[in-house]
Amino acid sequence: MSAFDVHRYRVDFPNLNISVHGKPLVYLDNAATTLKPRCVIDAINAYYVTGVANVHRGVHYLSEQATAAFEYSRQVVRQFLHARRVQEIIFTKGCTESLNLVAQAYGRQFLKSGDEIIISHMEHHSNIVPWQMLCQQVGCVLKVIPINDQGEIIIEEYLKLLSDKTKLVSLVWVSNSLGTVNPVKTMVEAAHKKGAVVVIDAAQAVTHTPINVQDLDCDFLVFSGHKIFGPTGVGVLYGKEKWLEAMPPYQGGGDMIKTVTFAQTTYNTLPYKFEAGTPPIAEVIGLRSALEYLQTISWEGMRQHKQELLNYGTKILLSIDGVRIIGTAKDKTSIVSFVVEGIHPHDLGTLVDREGVAVRTGHHCTQPVMQRFGVPATARVSLAFYNTKEEINILSQAVKKTQVVFQR
After folding, report:
1. Which of 125, 135, 257, 324 is most buried, judged by most C-beta within 10 A?
2. Which residue is catalytic, options 39, 135, 218, 365?
3. Which of 132, 121, 73 is nearest to 99 (CA)?
4. Nearest Cα residue to 312 out of 7, 19, 28
5. Where does 252-366 have alpha helices with state H?
């Protein structure tokens, strides 16, 4: 039994005190976005109330203070990822923009017709569509690693796909729809042996395991602030400095330039070359607060607690007649996707919401996964360290009530 004191941390999240349809909120939609602790809300509020100003170009006090807070946040992210230098940390709107940035700025610069890009069958749409667009633009070929009936990448097939034509591999670390944890370090090593660059989508992994990009040796890694108890509208692209230096800017505008004339523009140094325009200042400050908050909690304690919740939730849901879980990998995180016989997931989600339970229903931006398992959609329970077994019991009762409704 874990000694993790979940109630010590629940008090930090104001949303856990609200009611939905007259019932206490049971929030089980953390893979879509996590709740925000009070310290994050306070940090954003403080910027707007006492320190709002634009960054980098002002010489007045408020601008200097905002710039210092913004750039200190970059240092916190660097430390969180164990990156080598702050120049390797680019602030974006989120994972989607980060992946598009790599596809356009790296892909169009270095890839050519006939080159091959490898992704997996379990990727989020944001790690599929940008590569398809790149293939249409430059003539690359997209290859897909198959997954087995448990929702695991078939490593043998991945190794077969790797060849001298492979120039880029882009992989999800943790599947948002299956919960599968992929052996990314092994996969990075295999890709590098073929000379390929590797991009890691860490959107879900970022709350489940400490990340050391130098140890992982990936070339790029992306995550979104709102998946890690921070605000929406901000994300991070980590890139090895040698690649970022060689890549052209993704967007043009203010702050990404050194000089501008009608004849020629010269670009700013890293990381500013990729941060055109006014950045999400309040959101970056909020992200820093979220990362600092997370560092006060034991990673091992969180891991054990969420593993207990995963095991308990899996057992409870499977005890309900007609429930089938989609995604049963040996190594998976606290995500349980399931279907209930005779009930469309959207109907299920609507009715359990009447009991105060928030789950995600749909294809979860992974339509190829749904096609692989022959379902139109699933209901997805995604658990954070502030969730409890009691909340899983409430979910179970809500599912059973929904079954009664459909049996009438």
Report:
1. 135
2. 365
3. 132
4. 28
5. 281-294, 299-318, 345-353
Distant-in-sequence contacts of 181-185, Cβ < 8 A, 24+ apart:
181/205, 181/208, 181/329, 181/331, 181/332, 181/333, 182/120, 182/153, 183/153, 183/155, 183/331, 184/216, 184/218, 185/215, 185/216, 185/217
- At 2, the pLDDT band (50, 70, 90 cuts) reads low
DSSP 160: H
SS3 call for 230: coil
Establish whether 365 is a catalytic residue: yes
Would you tell me which CATH number, out of the four given (3.40.640.10, 3.40.50.300, 3.30.930.10, 1.20.1250.20), belongs to the domain 41-294? 3.40.640.10
Q: At CA 184, angle to CA 178 and CA 189, rounded to 5?
A: 155
- The model's confidence at residue 58, banded by pLDDT at 50, 70 and 90, is confident
Paired tokens of 116: 């091959």
- Per-residue pLDDT tens digits for 98-149: 999 999 999 999 999 999 999 999 999 999 999 999 999 999 999 999 999 9
Alpha-carbon gap, residue 200 to 179, rounded angstroms: 16
- Provide the residue type at 2 as one letter: S
227 near 203, Cβ under 8 Å? yes
Please name which of 125, 130, 128, 120 lies closest in space to residue 100, comparing C-alpha atoms.
130
Domain ranges of the chain: 6-30+298-407, 41-294
Judge whether 243 and 106 are in contact, CB under 8 Å. Answer: yes
CATH of 6-30+298-407, one of 3.20.20.80, 1.10.240.10, 3.90.1150.10, 3.90.1200.10: 3.90.1150.10
| Phi, psi of 277, rounded to the nearest 5 degrees | 80, 180
pLDDT, one tens digit per residue, over 346-397 is 999 999 999 999 999 999 999 999 999 999 999 999 999 999 999 999 999 9
pTM greater than the 0.90 cutoff: yes
Instruction: Supply the angle between the helices 61-81 and 281-294 in degrees, to the nearest 10.
Output: 40
What is the predicted pLDDT for the residue at 57? 84
